[in-house]
Design a protein that fits this description.
The structure holds two protein chains of two kinds. Chain A is mostly beta strands. Chain A contains one helix and seven strands, in the order ββαβββββ. In chain A, β5 (55-58) and β6 form a beta hairpin. In chain A, the strands form two sheets. Chain A has a five-stranded mixed β-sheet, with helices on one face. A two-stranded antiparallel sheet of chain A has the order 3-4. Chain A has one helix spanning 22-29; strands at residues 4-9, 12-17, 34-35, 41-42, 55-58, 61-65, 76-78. Chain B is an alpha/beta fold. Chain B is built from 14 helices and 21 strands. Chain B has helices at 18-28, 59-69, 128-136, 154-164, 178-190, 194-204, 255-259, 294-308, 312-316, 319-335, 360-364, 369-376, 388-396, 412-416, and strands spanning 3-14, 34-37, 73-75, 79-84, 87-91, 95-106, 110-112, 125-126, 145-151, 168-174, 210-211, 214-220, 227-232, 235-240, 243-248, 250-252, 264-265, 268-269, 282-284, 351-353, 358-359. The chains are: A mainly beta, B alpha/beta. Chains A and B meet through α1 and β4 of A and β8 and α3 of B.
Chain lengths: 81, 430
């Protein structure tokens, strides 16, 4: 059995496999990552740290690229802002 | 408050994909101190993303074993954002890092080319490699309907991978023509070691429609993609899907080589037979010298690593192997030229710059990339034009040549950690 890790996305618990990135947790929660400057919802495009579309707040720190950060137990993720 | 780390290596390698890993290991044979740094949380680059934890023995695991047993110091999650006078400035999550080096190997890899079409900014429209990266990072796609579109062999690899992960791959939309695709397949069968790979793909993709002369025209959906409209041999049709994975082949990451002062030719880093760039003591390996795939990246990395540690004899032994691998560069270049119809996909209100939400019509008013940046804010957001500049280059024929530090958005504290040598900043911070 593979290990899993639990985080919260906008307050809702989400469980992903150990080693999964925050971007994966956000997608699994059904949320989108950020709101663009003209108000559009956005989610990951490149998946490898170059496009900056997957930015979310992690443990209160805004503008983190969620595809480059691994989920840690009890992380608080704010997405869609 | 962030701490500042100071590191010194005989050879610093930027980029821990196959080219960087091979360079670091070859250089480590000399017994010199080697540092291998990467923006990502783990080494492996994109092709070996997540492969370190894979249980079965593979080409990747052999390289990872060697890396783990070596004296190479791996610096994870380190973004190199500035370089001058034999020093690199990087930042990690919790510190600024100053790296001094004797020799430098740049193995910065490639990213996907994205082209704007109506709806391409909808959630769940992502890169083809982008979807694969997310799958390797743990995305559960079982039972989801996926359309894969764009151009190049990556589409086949992604389709096979997505299917293996349980996705229902509805179809592959390849913009190139059927004759080009057939020629590509036949040429690849003649490349040593490529035939088994090609046959495996053919088996893995059995039953999945592969449409040539086919590309996405628009994507629709409420908050996320639900329908993609495709053009297929002149006819349009609509397909329901949960994900649209769309990438138009690869472009090299040349921002850092450019900032190091390395000369480029036709968008690629110029190197000599030892992979040395126009800057003495700075080497480049892998995709930035020409999109050629895994085997070429590995052998170029090894040559660069040996050359950077004055082991020319060992480097020379690999020249013939590199020449064989370089055939793939030419085959790829010929097979997937972008068709002109793709320039007409963006409507006036289609966003080209996704960071600053700049529509196509705002770019038409300008005659150069610089003017578009200054007047329309295109490419002025956090990605610094990594997505929209290559698109604008294709759409408008603009020359994209500006790069200045920091090449990634960084914390003020990381900027402040750079030693105060005003002449080193190239005017970038003024």
């Amino acid at each position: 059995m593979s290990k899993s890790v639990s985080v919260r996305v906008n307050g809702q618990p989400v469980t992903v496999r150990a080693g999964a990135t925050v971007a994966v947790a956000v997608l699994a929660s059904g949320a989108t990552c950020r709101t663009s400057v003209s108000g559009q919802p956005r989610s990951p495009l490149c998946g490898m740290g170059t496009c900056f579309e997957c930015r979310v707040a992690i443990n209160g720190e805004p503008q983190r690229r969620s595809c480059q950060v691994l989920c840690e137990s009890n992380m608080e993720i704010e997405a869609g802002g | 408050m962030d701490s500042v780390k100071h590191l010194r290596f005989d050879v610093a390698v930027v980029g821990a994909g196959p080219a960087g890993i091979a360079a670091a290991l070859a250089a480590a044979d000399s017994g010199k101190s080697i540092g291998l740094m990467d923006d990502n949380p783990a080494p492996g680059g994109q092709i070996w993303r997540g492969a370190q934890s894979a249980p079965r023995r593979s080409a990747a695991s052999i390289w990872f074993d060697r890396l783990n047993k070596s004296a190479v110091q791996i610096i994870r999650g380190a973004r190199v954002f500035h370089t001058a006078n034999g020093e690199l400035a990087a930042e990690s999550d919790d510190s600024a890092i100053q790296i001094t080096y004797g020799k430098l190997v740049l193995a910065t890899g490639a990213r996907e080319l994205f082209l704007p079409f109506p709806g391409w900014t909808l959630p769940n429209v992502m890169g083809a490699g982008g979807l694969q990266a997310l799958l390797k990072s743990g995305l559960d796609i079982a039972g989801k309907r996926v359309v894969i579109a764009g151009t190049g062999p990556l589409l086949l690899a992604v389709a096979a991978y997505a299917r293996k992960c349980g996705a229902k791959v509805v179809g592959i939309c390849e913009q190139t023509t059927r004759p080009r695709m057939v020629r590509f397949g036949m040429k690849m069968l003649l490349v040593p070691n490529k035939a088994p790979e090609a046959l495996r793909f053919a088996y893995d993709l059995r039953g999945i429609p592969h449409w040539t002369d086919c590309w996405p025209v628009a994507a629709f959906g409420n908050r996320r993609v639900e329908i993609v409209r495709i053009s297929r041999q002149g006819q349009t049709s609509e397909i329901e899907c949960d994900y649209l994975a769309c990438g138009f082949h690869l472009i090299p990451n040349v921002e850092l080589p450019r900032m190091c002062g390395c000369r480029l030719q036709q968008g690629l880093v110029e190197v000599d037979e030892y992979q040395q760039t126009s800057v003495t003591g700075t080497y480049c390996a892998g995709e930035p010298t020409g999109i050629g795939g895994l085997e070429l990246a590995l052998v170029e990395g090894e040559i660069a690593g040996y050359a950077a540690t004055n082991w020319e004899d060992r480097a020379k032994h690999l020249f013939a192997k590199r020449a064989r691998c370089q055939k793939v560069v030419r085959i790829l270049k010929d097979a997937f030229p972008l068709r002109p119809e793709l320039k007409n996909l963006a409507r006036p209100d289609t966003l080209v710059c996704r960071c600053e939400d700049v529509p196509h019509e705002r770019l038409c008013e300008h005659s150069s990339w610089r003017a578009a940046k200054l007047h329309a804010r295109c490419g002025m957001g956090p990605c610094q034009g990594r997505v929209c500049a290559p698109a604008a280059e294709f759409l408008f024929g603009w020359e994209i040549d500006s790069v200045r530090p920091p090449v990634f958005p960084v914390r003020c504290s990381s900027l402040a950690a750079i030693p105060a040598h005003p002449t080193k900043l190239n005017g970038g911070f003024r």
